[in-house]
Amino acid sequence: MLSNFLTIIFAPMFVLLIHYFEFRSVVLVYLVFAIVYFIFKYFKKKSYKDMIIPSINIIILSIAYYFSSFQTVKYIPVTLSSIFLLLFIDAHFNKKYMILKFTKRFYHKALNEEEIEFIKKGDGYWVIVMLINTLIHLYIVNFCSDRVWAFYSSVGWYFLFFTALIGQIIYGKVYGVKVHSR
């Protein structure tokens, strides 16, 4: 819950703070929070994967501090989106069935064989969604205002994901399970 809240406020709060304070001071405060969060996650970790996002934040914020570059900070969401894209590509080509694992974790009803077969193929769909998200992030970082970046990096990408998830669910209920079970 805390990480979701921090994700939502990261970009707009950063843009707001750099209007009132020196850039390096804002980055330093964010860096301190990132290190504290990293330590918190370290002691609470369930796996090494829990440490990836805090580590990336520390690395990129350190680079941004060193180079005094807001553009570098804007690449944090791009980097995270790219990592998730790579995870889904790996899951798709190595048959790790990442979406099926998520579904089993959060959907507690028993799935029939047709549903399982459909969901197994969901990683390919999410590769496309993550690619679109990464490309949108890249476009926004390079060609849009800081306000657009702050909006998309905090809440805009949620709209893309929820739309993609709803589309996948509707497709699966109406058409997909029947087609993929043959």
Structure description:
By secondary structure, this protein is an all-alpha fold. Helix content is 85%, strand content 0%. It has eight helices and no strands. The chain has helices at residues 2-20, 23-44, 52-67, 70-93, 98-106, 113-120, 122-143, 146-180. Helix 1 (2-20) packs antiparallel against helix 8. The termini are far apart.
- Helix percent reads over 70%
| Gross morphology | elongated
Q: What share of residues are in beta strands?
A: under 5%
How far the N terminus sits from the C terminus, by CA atoms, comes to 40 Å
Number of helices: 8
Tally of extended strands?
Answer: 0
Taking the sheet with the most strands, its summary is: none
How large is the radius of gyration?
19 Å
Class by SSE composition: mainly alpha
Q: What is the H-and-E element order?
A: HHHHHHHH
Poorly predicted segments: none
Average pLDDT works out at 89
Question: How would you sum up this structure in a few lines?
Answer:
This protein has 182 residues and is mainly α. It has helices spanning 2-20, 23-44, 52-67, 70-93, 98-106, 113-120, 122-143, 146-180.
